[in-house]
Specification:
Elements: H1 3-24, H2 30-52
């Protein structure tokens, strides 16, 4: 796969995980939801920087 396709797949996976976690666990908890979403973005960003970046 090309680098752009891998990045697109990572972004789609990140969005799916965020929406799934929000819907399943943190519907009424704004601050907890925000912290978990930021954590997910940081983990996916670290993955991209570690494995996808040249």
């Amino acid at each position: 796969m090309t680098r752009q396709m891998v990045l697109v797949c990572c972004v789609i996976a990140m969005i799916a995980v965020i929406v799934g976690v929000d819907a399943a666990f943190f519907r009424q908890h704004f601050w907890e939801r925000l912290m978990v979403n930021i954590g997910i973005v940081l983990v996916v960003g670290a993955f991209v920087l570690r494995f996808v970046r040249k």
